[in-house]
Amino acid sequence: MHEFKYSNRQLYCEKIRVEELALRFGTPLYVYSYHTLIGHYLKLKEAFKEIDPLICYSVKANSNLALLKALVDKGSGLDIVSGGELFRAIQVGCPAAKIVYASVGKTDREIEEALARGILFFNVESFPELENINRIASKLHKTASVAIRINPDVEPKTHKFITTGKITNKFGIDLKSAEKILLRCMSYPNVNISGLHIHIGSQITESAPFVAAITKMVDFIDRLKTKGLSIEYLNIGGGLGIIYDRESPQTAQKFAHKVLPLLKKTGLRIILEPGRFIVGNAGILVTRVLYVKSTPKKKFVIVDAGMNDLIRPALYSAYHNILPLRAKEEARREKVDIVGPICESGDFIAKERRLPVVREGGYLAVMGTGAYGFSMSSNYNSRRRPQEVLVIKDKVFIIRKRESYSDLVRNENIPAFLFGL
Ligand SMILES: *Cc1c(COP(=O)(O)O)cnc(C)c1O
Protein backbone atom coordinates (compact mmCIF):
# COMPACT_ATOMS: atom_id res chain seq x y z
CA MET A 1 0.00 0.00 0.00
CA HIS A 2 1.31 3.41 -0.87
CA GLU A 3 0.14 6.93 -1.65
CA PHE A 4 1.52 7.22 -5.20
CA LYS A 5 -1.44 6.90 -7.54
CA TYR A 6 -2.73 8.11 -10.89
CA SER A 7 -5.62 10.47 -11.11
CA ASN A 8 -6.70 11.74 -14.53
CA ARG A 9 -3.63 9.96 -15.90
CA GLN A 10 -1.26 12.03 -13.79
CA LEU A 11 0.84 10.54 -11.01
CA TYR A 12 0.14 11.97 -7.57
CA CYS A 13 1.93 11.75 -4.24
CA GLU A 14 -0.85 12.06 -1.68
CA LYS A 15 -2.70 15.17 -2.92
CA ILE A 16 0.08 16.69 -5.01
CA ARG A 17 0.76 16.13 -8.68
CA VAL A 18 4.33 14.80 -8.92
CA GLU A 19 5.04 16.71 -12.15
CA GLU A 20 4.35 19.93 -10.27
CA LEU A 21 7.11 18.97 -7.86
CA ALA A 22 9.49 18.10 -10.69
CA LEU A 23 8.88 21.46 -12.37
CA ARG A 24 9.17 23.37 -9.13
CA PHE A 25 12.23 21.68 -7.63
CA GLY A 26 14.01 20.20 -10.63
CA THR A 27 15.23 16.65 -11.07
CA PRO A 28 16.55 14.20 -10.01
CA LEU A 29 14.25 14.49 -7.03
CA TYR A 30 13.35 12.11 -4.22
CA VAL A 31 9.70 12.48 -3.21
CA TYR A 32 8.46 10.86 0.00
CA SER A 33 4.91 10.36 1.22
CA TYR A 34 4.49 11.02 4.93
CA HIS A 35 1.36 8.90 5.23
CA THR A 36 2.94 5.92 3.49
CA LEU A 37 5.92 6.08 5.84
CA ILE A 38 3.88 6.33 9.02
CA GLY A 39 1.27 3.91 7.68
CA HIS A 40 3.83 1.15 7.39
CA TYR A 41 5.21 1.80 10.85
CA LEU A 42 1.72 1.67 12.34
CA LYS A 43 0.82 -1.46 10.39
CA LEU A 44 3.73 -3.33 11.93
CA LYS A 45 3.01 -1.97 15.37
CA GLU A 46 -0.63 -3.03 15.07
CA ALA A 47 0.27 -6.54 13.83
CA PHE A 48 2.48 -7.13 16.87
CA LYS A 49 0.41 -5.24 19.44
CA GLU A 50 -0.19 -8.36 21.56
CA ILE A 51 3.44 -8.29 22.66
CA ASP A 52 4.01 -4.54 22.35
CA PRO A 53 7.52 -4.80 20.89
CA LEU A 54 10.03 -2.00 20.64
CA ILE A 55 10.25 -1.13 16.94
CA CYS A 56 13.66 0.32 16.12
CA TYR A 57 13.55 1.71 12.58
CA SER A 58 16.80 0.90 10.78
CA VAL A 59 18.38 4.29 10.09
CA LYS A 60 20.59 3.14 7.23
CA ALA A 61 17.58 2.45 5.01
CA ASN A 62 16.94 6.20 4.84
CA SER A 63 18.56 8.48 7.34
CA ASN A 64 16.99 11.83 6.46
CA LEU A 65 16.37 13.74 9.71
CA ALA A 66 12.79 14.64 8.82
CA LEU A 67 11.82 11.01 8.24
CA LEU A 68 13.59 9.94 11.44
CA LYS A 69 11.82 12.66 13.41
CA ALA A 70 8.44 11.65 11.98
CA LEU A 71 8.97 8.06 13.09
CA VAL A 72 10.46 8.89 16.48
CA ASP A 73 7.46 11.14 17.17
CA LYS A 74 5.22 8.10 16.62
CA GLY A 75 7.17 6.17 19.24
CA SER A 76 9.71 4.42 17.05
CA GLY A 77 13.19 3.68 18.36
CA LEU A 78 16.21 3.58 16.06
CA ASP A 79 18.62 0.87 14.95
CA ILE A 80 21.99 2.43 14.19
CA VAL A 81 25.22 1.15 12.65
CA SER A 82 27.70 4.01 13.11
CA GLY A 83 28.64 7.09 15.11
CA GLY A 84 27.14 9.20 12.35
CA GLU A 85 23.79 7.48 12.75
CA LEU A 86 24.01 7.96 16.53
CA PHE A 87 24.50 11.66 15.85
CA ARG A 88 21.38 11.70 13.68
CA ALA A 89 19.39 9.79 16.32
CA ILE A 90 20.33 12.38 18.93
CA GLN A 91 19.57 15.25 16.54
CA VAL A 92 15.97 14.07 16.24
CA GLY A 93 15.60 13.53 19.97
CA CYS A 94 15.34 9.76 19.98
CA PRO A 95 15.43 8.57 23.61
CA ALA A 96 18.72 6.73 24.21
CA ALA A 97 16.75 3.88 25.76
CA LYS A 98 15.27 3.21 22.31
CA ILE A 99 18.58 3.03 20.41
CA VAL A 100 20.26 -0.26 19.51
CA TYR A 101 23.63 -0.34 17.81
CA ALA A 102 24.85 -3.08 15.42
CA SER A 103 28.00 -3.22 13.25
CA VAL A 104 30.88 -5.65 12.94
CA GLY A 105 33.39 -2.78 13.13
CA LYS A 106 32.55 -0.35 15.91
CA THR A 107 35.52 1.90 16.67
CA ASP A 108 36.62 2.86 20.18
CA ARG A 109 35.33 6.37 19.65
CA GLU A 110 31.95 5.12 18.48
CA ILE A 111 31.68 2.80 21.48
CA GLU A 112 32.60 5.62 23.87
CA GLU A 113 30.02 7.97 22.37
CA ALA A 114 27.24 5.40 22.53
CA LEU A 115 28.16 4.49 26.11
CA ALA A 116 28.17 8.12 27.12
CA ARG A 117 24.66 8.49 25.68
CA GLY A 118 23.42 5.39 27.48
CA ILE A 119 21.91 3.54 24.52
CA LEU A 120 19.71 0.49 25.19
CA PHE A 121 22.41 -1.90 23.99
CA PHE A 122 25.15 -2.76 21.55
CA ASN A 123 24.51 -5.71 19.28
CA VAL A 124 27.88 -7.37 19.70
CA GLU A 125 29.17 -9.19 16.65
CA SER A 126 32.38 -10.83 17.86
CA PHE A 127 34.37 -11.96 20.84
CA PRO A 128 37.13 -9.31 20.44
CA GLU A 129 34.44 -6.61 20.17
CA LEU A 130 32.91 -7.78 23.46
CA GLU A 131 36.30 -7.59 25.16
CA ASN A 132 36.83 -4.13 23.75
CA ILE A 133 33.45 -2.88 24.94
CA ASN A 134 34.22 -4.28 28.40
CA ARG A 135 37.59 -2.51 28.41
CA ILE A 136 36.14 0.84 27.32
CA ALA A 137 33.21 0.60 29.76
CA SER A 138 35.64 -0.15 32.59
CA LYS A 139 37.77 2.86 31.64
CA LEU A 140 34.64 5.07 31.75
CA HIS A 141 33.42 3.43 34.99
CA LYS A 142 30.26 2.27 33.26
CA THR A 143 28.42 -0.95 32.60
CA ALA A 144 27.67 -1.55 28.95
CA SER A 145 24.46 -3.32 28.00
CA VAL A 146 24.92 -5.69 25.12
CA ALA A 147 22.97 -8.20 23.08
CA ILE A 148 24.91 -11.00 21.45
CA ARG A 149 24.23 -11.04 17.71
CA ILE A 150 23.76 -14.66 16.79
CA ASN A 151 24.48 -15.95 13.34
CA PRO A 152 21.76 -18.62 13.16
CA ASP A 153 23.02 -20.06 9.86
CA VAL A 154 19.79 -19.94 7.89
CA GLU A 155 19.20 -19.35 4.19
CA PRO A 156 16.98 -16.26 3.75
CA LYS A 157 16.50 -16.77 -0.02
CA THR A 158 17.42 -13.25 -1.03
CA HIS A 159 20.27 -11.62 -2.98
CA LYS A 160 23.66 -12.86 -1.75
CA PHE A 161 24.86 -9.32 -1.02
CA ILE A 162 21.98 -8.84 1.43
CA THR A 163 22.19 -12.26 3.08
CA THR A 164 23.59 -11.82 6.59
CA GLY A 165 22.60 -14.87 8.65
CA LYS A 166 24.61 -17.65 6.99
CA ILE A 167 27.65 -18.95 8.78
CA THR A 168 29.88 -17.82 5.91
CA ASN A 169 28.76 -14.17 6.40
CA LYS A 170 30.81 -11.77 8.50
CA PHE A 171 27.92 -11.02 10.86
CA GLY A 172 27.18 -12.35 14.33
CA ILE A 173 28.49 -15.18 16.45
CA ASP A 174 27.70 -18.88 16.07
CA LEU A 175 25.54 -20.51 18.73
CA LYS A 176 28.31 -22.57 20.32
CA SER A 177 30.62 -19.61 20.78
CA ALA A 178 27.74 -17.47 22.02
CA GLU A 179 26.98 -20.05 24.70
CA LYS A 180 30.62 -19.97 25.80
CA ILE A 181 30.53 -16.20 26.02
CA LEU A 182 27.33 -16.28 28.09
CA LEU A 183 28.77 -18.90 30.46
CA ARG A 184 31.83 -16.74 30.84
CA CYS A 185 29.96 -13.47 31.28
CA MET A 186 31.44 -13.07 34.76
CA SER A 187 34.79 -12.38 33.14
CA TYR A 188 33.31 -9.21 31.63
CA PRO A 189 32.47 -7.25 34.78
CA ASN A 190 31.63 -4.06 32.89
CA VAL A 191 29.26 -5.73 30.48
CA ASN A 192 25.67 -6.75 31.09
CA ILE A 193 24.48 -9.26 28.52
CA SER A 194 20.84 -8.33 28.35
CA GLY A 195 19.74 -9.78 25.05
CA LEU A 196 20.17 -11.84 21.92
CA HIS A 197 19.99 -10.42 18.41
CA ILE A 198 19.53 -11.83 14.93
CA HIS A 199 19.25 -10.12 11.55
CA ILE A 200 19.32 -12.70 8.78
CA GLY A 201 19.16 -10.55 5.67
CA SER A 202 17.09 -8.08 3.71
CA GLN A 203 14.17 -8.17 1.26
CA ILE A 204 13.01 -11.53 2.64
CA THR A 205 9.54 -12.24 1.29
CA GLU A 206 8.63 -15.47 3.10
CA SER A 207 8.20 -16.29 6.74
CA ALA A 208 10.03 -19.64 6.65
CA PRO A 209 13.57 -18.21 7.11
CA PHE A 210 12.40 -16.04 10.02
CA VAL A 211 10.59 -18.98 11.61
CA ALA A 212 13.69 -21.15 11.21
CA ALA A 213 15.96 -18.54 12.79
CA ILE A 214 13.59 -17.65 15.62
CA THR A 215 12.99 -21.33 16.39
CA LYS A 216 16.75 -21.74 16.83
CA MET A 217 16.73 -18.80 19.19
CA VAL A 218 13.82 -20.18 21.21
CA ASP A 219 15.68 -23.47 21.65
CA PHE A 220 18.85 -21.62 22.56
CA ILE A 221 17.06 -19.48 25.14
CA ASP A 222 15.58 -22.65 26.71
CA ARG A 223 19.03 -24.17 26.83
CA LEU A 224 20.43 -21.09 28.54
CA LYS A 225 17.65 -21.27 31.11
CA THR A 226 18.64 -24.82 32.07
CA LYS A 227 22.10 -23.41 32.76
CA GLY A 228 20.71 -20.70 34.96
CA LEU A 229 21.25 -17.91 32.44
CA SER A 230 18.48 -15.50 31.70
CA ILE A 231 18.23 -12.54 29.40
CA GLU A 232 15.71 -9.79 28.92
CA TYR A 233 15.49 -9.01 25.19
CA LEU A 234 15.19 -10.86 21.93
CA ASN A 235 15.87 -8.66 18.91
CA ILE A 236 14.69 -10.37 15.71
CA GLY A 237 16.20 -7.79 13.36
CA GLY A 238 14.68 -6.43 10.15
CA GLY A 239 14.59 -7.81 6.65
CA LEU A 240 10.88 -7.83 5.82
CA GLY A 241 10.52 -7.67 2.06
CA ILE A 242 8.34 -5.34 0.00
CA ILE A 243 6.85 -5.37 -3.49
CA TYR A 244 9.25 -4.14 -6.18
CA ASP A 245 8.11 -6.30 -9.08
CA ARG A 246 5.89 -9.35 -8.88
CA GLU A 247 6.84 -10.45 -5.37
CA SER A 248 3.95 -11.21 -3.10
CA PRO A 249 5.57 -10.65 0.24
CA GLN A 250 3.81 -11.56 3.44
CA THR A 251 1.87 -8.76 5.05
CA ALA A 252 2.83 -7.54 8.51
CA GLN A 253 -0.24 -9.38 9.77
CA LYS A 254 0.77 -12.70 8.22
CA PHE A 255 4.33 -12.33 9.40
CA ALA A 256 3.17 -11.60 12.93
CA HIS A 257 0.78 -14.55 12.82
CA LYS A 258 3.68 -16.89 11.98
CA VAL A 259 6.22 -15.64 14.50
CA LEU A 260 4.10 -14.42 17.42
CA PRO A 261 3.55 -17.87 18.96
CA LEU A 262 7.32 -18.43 18.99
CA LEU A 263 8.07 -15.00 20.40
CA LYS A 264 5.47 -15.34 23.14
CA LYS A 265 7.06 -18.62 24.22
CA THR A 266 10.28 -16.80 25.12
CA GLY A 267 8.58 -14.44 27.55
CA LEU A 268 11.22 -11.88 26.55
CA ARG A 269 10.80 -8.27 25.50
CA ILE A 270 10.86 -8.27 21.68
CA ILE A 271 12.62 -5.80 19.39
CA LEU A 272 12.10 -5.41 15.63
CA GLU A 273 14.44 -3.49 13.31
CA PRO A 274 12.58 -2.89 10.05
CA GLY A 275 14.07 -0.53 7.49
CA ARG A 276 12.91 -1.28 3.98
CA PHE A 277 9.43 -2.36 5.09
CA ILE A 278 8.77 1.07 6.56
CA VAL A 279 10.36 3.42 4.05
CA GLY A 280 10.82 1.42 0.81
CA ASN A 281 7.50 2.20 -0.81
CA ALA A 282 7.27 5.63 0.81
CA GLY A 283 9.66 7.17 -1.72
CA ILE A 284 10.13 7.60 -5.47
CA LEU A 285 12.95 9.04 -7.53
CA VAL A 286 11.71 11.45 -10.18
CA THR A 287 13.92 11.83 -13.22
CA ARG A 288 13.74 13.67 -16.53
CA VAL A 289 14.38 12.15 -19.93
CA LEU A 290 17.37 13.94 -21.48
CA TYR A 291 17.76 12.02 -24.72
CA VAL A 292 16.34 9.03 -26.51
CA LYS A 293 19.16 7.31 -28.33
CA SER A 294 18.70 4.55 -30.87
CA THR A 295 21.63 2.31 -31.71
CA PRO A 296 21.65 -0.62 -34.19
CA LYS A 297 20.88 -3.04 -31.36
CA LYS A 298 19.09 -1.05 -28.70
CA LYS A 299 17.12 1.95 -27.66
CA PHE A 300 18.43 3.89 -24.69
CA VAL A 301 16.42 6.32 -22.64
CA ILE A 302 19.02 8.59 -21.07
CA VAL A 303 17.76 10.20 -17.88
CA ASP A 304 19.20 12.73 -15.45
CA ALA A 305 19.38 10.30 -12.50
CA GLY A 306 22.44 8.12 -12.34
CA MET A 307 23.89 5.31 -10.27
CA ASN A 308 25.22 7.93 -7.87
CA ASP A 309 21.58 8.79 -7.05
CA LEU A 310 20.30 5.20 -6.99
CA ILE A 311 22.82 2.37 -6.93
CA ARG A 312 20.52 -0.57 -6.25
CA PRO A 313 20.15 -1.71 -9.89
CA ALA A 314 23.94 -1.73 -10.36
CA LEU A 315 24.75 -3.19 -6.94
CA TYR A 316 22.04 -5.82 -6.51
CA SER A 317 20.54 -6.09 -10.00
CA ALA A 318 17.52 -4.66 -8.24
CA TYR A 319 14.25 -4.21 -10.10
CA HIS A 320 12.37 -0.93 -9.75
CA ASN A 321 9.06 -0.31 -11.41
CA ILE A 322 9.20 2.74 -13.70
CA LEU A 323 6.13 4.85 -14.35
CA PRO A 324 5.64 7.93 -16.52
CA LEU A 325 4.31 10.92 -14.60
CA ARG A 326 1.76 11.31 -17.38
CA ALA A 327 0.11 8.09 -18.44
CA LYS A 328 -0.96 8.23 -22.08
CA GLU A 329 -4.22 6.99 -23.43
CA GLU A 330 -2.75 4.98 -26.26
CA ALA A 331 0.01 3.09 -24.53
CA ARG A 332 2.27 1.89 -27.31
CA ARG A 333 5.14 0.15 -25.59
CA GLU A 334 8.72 -0.49 -26.58
CA LYS A 335 11.66 -2.22 -25.03
CA VAL A 336 14.33 0.16 -23.76
CA ASP A 337 17.27 0.48 -21.38
CA ILE A 338 16.88 3.36 -18.93
CA VAL A 339 20.39 4.66 -18.26
CA GLY A 340 21.99 7.55 -16.43
CA PRO A 341 24.63 10.09 -17.53
CA ILE A 342 27.55 8.50 -15.63
CA CYS A 343 30.64 7.13 -17.32
CA GLU A 344 30.06 3.50 -16.31
CA SER A 345 28.23 0.72 -18.12
CA GLY A 346 26.82 -0.25 -14.72
CA ASP A 347 24.98 3.05 -14.71
CA PHE A 348 21.49 1.84 -15.47
CA ILE A 349 18.12 2.02 -13.77
CA ALA A 350 16.42 -0.65 -15.85
CA LYS A 351 17.38 -2.94 -18.68
CA GLU A 352 15.25 -4.39 -21.47
CA ARG A 353 12.15 -2.84 -19.98
CA ARG A 354 8.89 -2.55 -21.92
CA LEU A 355 7.69 0.97 -21.29
CA PRO A 356 5.15 3.26 -22.88
CA VAL A 357 7.07 5.28 -25.48
CA VAL A 358 8.75 8.22 -23.79
CA ARG A 359 9.85 11.54 -25.23
CA GLU A 360 12.73 13.85 -24.46
CA GLY A 361 11.72 16.24 -21.71
CA GLY A 362 9.23 13.77 -20.23
CA TYR A 363 9.43 12.64 -16.62
CA LEU A 364 9.65 9.18 -15.12
CA ALA A 365 9.16 7.95 -11.57
CA VAL A 366 11.41 5.19 -10.30
CA MET A 367 9.15 3.53 -7.77
CA GLY A 368 10.01 1.96 -4.43
CA THR A 369 13.19 3.94 -3.91
CA GLY A 370 12.56 5.18 -0.37
CA ALA A 371 14.92 2.58 1.12
CA TYR A 372 18.60 2.36 0.21
CA GLY A 373 18.09 5.09 -2.38
CA PHE A 374 19.32 8.43 -1.13
CA SER A 375 21.14 6.81 1.80
CA MET A 376 23.42 4.99 -0.64
CA SER A 377 23.90 7.98 -2.94
CA SER A 378 27.28 9.51 -3.66
CA ASN A 379 28.93 12.38 -5.49
CA TYR A 380 30.53 10.17 -8.13
CA ASN A 381 31.26 12.06 -11.36
CA SER A 382 31.09 15.21 -9.20
CA ARG A 383 27.34 15.08 -9.32
CA ARG A 384 25.41 16.98 -6.71
CA ARG A 385 23.23 14.69 -4.67
CA PRO A 386 19.51 15.11 -5.35
CA GLN A 387 17.00 17.13 -3.43
CA GLU A 388 14.54 15.36 -1.14
CA VAL A 389 10.99 16.53 -0.46
CA LEU A 390 8.33 15.25 1.90
CA VAL A 391 4.67 15.40 0.96
CA ILE A 392 1.91 15.41 3.51
CA LYS A 393 -1.52 15.69 1.92
CA ASP A 394 -1.42 18.89 -0.19
CA LYS A 395 1.72 20.28 1.45
CA VAL A 396 5.33 19.78 0.47
CA PHE A 397 8.48 20.38 2.48
CA ILE A 398 12.08 20.44 1.32
CA ILE A 399 13.83 18.02 3.67
CA ARG A 400 17.22 18.18 1.96
CA LYS A 401 18.14 20.82 -0.51
CA ARG A 402 20.00 19.97 -3.66
CA GLU A 403 23.75 20.15 -3.16
CA SER A 404 25.64 23.01 -4.72
CA TYR A 405 28.90 22.91 -6.64
CA SER A 406 30.63 24.44 -3.62
CA ASP A 407 29.28 21.63 -1.45
CA LEU A 408 31.22 19.27 -3.68
CA VAL A 409 34.60 20.83 -2.86
CA ARG A 410 33.85 22.16 0.63
CA ASN A 411 36.33 19.90 2.43
CA GLU A 412 39.07 19.95 -0.18
CA ASN A 413 42.23 21.96 0.05
CA ILE A 414 44.97 22.81 -2.45
CA PRO A 415 48.31 22.90 -0.57
CA ALA A 416 50.22 26.17 -0.97
CA PHE A 417 53.19 24.52 -2.69
CA LEU A 418 51.02 23.77 -5.70
CA PHE A 419 50.72 27.50 -6.21
CA GLY A 420 54.52 27.71 -6.19
CA LEU A 421 54.51 29.46 -2.80
C1 LIG B 1 20.16 -3.20 7.62
C2 LIG B 1 19.73 -3.75 8.93
C3 LIG B 1 18.37 -3.80 9.27
C4 LIG B 1 17.26 -3.37 8.34
O1 LIG B 1 17.11 -4.21 7.26
P1 LIG B 1 15.84 -4.06 6.29
O2 LIG B 1 16.01 -5.16 5.32
O3 LIG B 1 15.91 -2.73 5.67
O4 LIG B 1 14.63 -4.24 7.13
C5 LIG B 1 18.04 -4.25 10.54
N1 LIG B 1 19.00 -4.65 11.40
C6 LIG B 1 20.31 -4.64 11.10
C7 LIG B 1 21.30 -5.08 12.11
C8 LIG B 1 20.72 -4.19 9.86
O5 LIG B 1 22.02 -4.17 9.56
In brief:
With 421 residues, the chain is an alpha/beta fold. The protein folds into two domains: 4-31 and 280-404, Beta Barrel (Lyase, Ornithine Decarboxylase, Chain A, domain 1); 34-277, TIM Barrel (Alpha-Beta Barrel), CATH 3.20.20.10.
Give your account of this protein's structure.
It is a single chain. The protein has 421 residues and is an alpha/beta fold. It has 2 domains: 4-31 and 280-404, Lyase, Ornithine Decarboxylase, Chain A, domain 1 (Beta Barrel); 34-277, Alanine racemase (TIM Barrel, Alpha-Beta Barrel), CATH 3.20.20.10. Helices cover 29% and strands 25% of the residues. It is built from 12 helices and 20 strands. The strands form 3 sheets. Strands 4, 13, 14, 15, 16, 17, 18, 19 and 20 form a 9-stranded mixed beta sheet that branches. Strands 5-6-7-8-9-10-11-12 form an 8-stranded parallel barrel. It has a 3-stranded antiparallel beta sheet with strand order 1-2-3. A hairpin with an 8-residue loop joins strand 16 (333-339) and strand 17. Helix 5 (108-117) crosses helix 6 and helix 8 (208-226) runs parallel beside helix 9. The longest helix is centred in the middle third of the chain and has 19 residues, at 208-226. The structure holds pyridoxal-5'-phosphate. Residues 58, 60-61, 79, 81, 102, 199, 202, 237-240, 273-277, 371 line the site of pyridoxal-5'-phosphate.
